[in-house]
Amino acid sequence: MSLEAKTFTITRADLVAYAEASGDHNPIHQDDEVARSVGLPGVIAHGMYPMALAARAVGEWFPGAEVVSLGCKFTAPVVVPAEGSVEVVIAGEAKEPEDGLTTVVLTVTSGGQKVLGMPKAVVRA
Amino acid sequence: MDQSLVGRSFPSTAPYTVTDANVRAFAEATGSSYDGGPAPATFPIVMAFGAMNAFLEAEALDLFRIVHGEQRFTYERPIVPGDVLTATLSVASLRQIAGNDIIGTTSEITDADGTLVCSTSATLVHRGATE
Questions:
Q1: Which end of chain A has the smaller Cβ count within 10 Å, N or C?
Q2: What's the predicted TM-score (pTM) here?
Q3: What stretches of A5-119 show up as alpha helix (H) in DSSP?
Q4: Is residue A21, in this structure, part of any structural domain at all?
Q5: Which residues in chain B are closer than 8 Å to A71, comparing Cβ atoms?
Q6: Domains assigned to chain B
Q7: Is A16 part of a structural domain of the chain?
Q8: β-strand partners of B126
Q9: Min Cα–Cα distance to chain B from A67, Å
Q10: Contact check, Cβ <8 Å, A38/B64
Q11: Mutation to test the B interface, candidates A6, A12, A28, A31, most B Cβ within 10 Å
Q12: How far apart are CA B118 and CA B115, in angstroms?
């Protein structure tokens, strides 16, 4: 079953708030110069940010359902511009439930490019 | 970094008390809201990140050279405010690709009774210096 895709945005201010809330103060998520010094195109979102958005979408698709597992690879950086925002789209496909567990195969893209590799959640729903 | 790292465990993080305010700040940072109940599914990264920092410090690795390659969570139960959690990181694998170290880690997050709440695994890419 296809789930209705969700579009979220990420700004530099979101990255500051996320750094504070998560404790991840890696400067590659705040400072263009540091990001470039390690070969990145500029400030990138924490990989955990689009992953959190994926979890948020799962929570909206299956309200109140317990998440049993969640995983992904971080395959492409989400570059966040100094001004404005970048969009992240979360699409999902729910498999037939087995033993009360539903596997949700996700597709997470930004600018048409996949940013998470094989993102998948299993929920008790 | 060499293979002697594989299989090593690092000291557990100090107990972290999950509060309503901490969970709300985490939810709001990703544009969501929080009205009590289970914390967002990626919230255990807060403890796992603490364990990773302890590991980086012990190995004298720079956080800014670390890029996250992969993250998985398996939950034994939801995390809720009032939980007192600690995370313990072990190195599961290590390989070198194109001047980068690819470090596979697992962290177990346990509650005040020592019961497992969440297992996480993370692949950390330690990037070599660029010219």
A1: N
A2: 0.94
A3: 12-22, 32-37, 48-61
A4: no
A5: 70-73
A6: 3-126 (3.10.129.10)
A7: no
A8: B66, B101
A9: 7
A10: yes
A11: A28
A12: 9
Query: What residues in A contact B71, CB-CB < 8 Å?
Result: 47-48, 51, 71-72, 74
Partner-chain contact A37 B66, CB within 8 Å:
no
Q: What is the pLDDT of residues B56-80, one digit of tens each?
A: 999 999 998 998 999 999 999 999 9
Smallest Cα–Cα separation from B45: which of A73, A42, A56, A46?
A46
**pLDDT grade for B129, boundaries at 50, 70 and 90:** low
- Element housing B115 (H / E): none
* Residue A29 forms contact with B (CB below 8 Å): no
Taking chain A (125 residues) in consecutive chunks of 10 residues, what is each chunk's mean pLDDT? Answer: 97 98 94 92 96 97 96 97 98 97 98 98 94
A35 in any annotated domain? no
* Residue A98 buriedness (CB in 10 A; 0-12 / 13-18 / 19+): exposed
Q: The tokens 């971080």 sit on which residue?
A: A74
Residue A7 in contact with partner chain B when CB distance is under 8 A: no
Which residues lie across from A70 on neighbouring strands?
Answer: A121, B73
Tokens in use for B109? 């997050």
Residue A22 lies in a domain: no
> How many domains is chain A built from?
1
For residue A73, give its domain range: 2-9+47-124
Gap between the Cα atoms of B63 and B10, Å rounded: 17
Q: How many contacts does A have with B, using Cβ atoms within 8 A?
A: 110
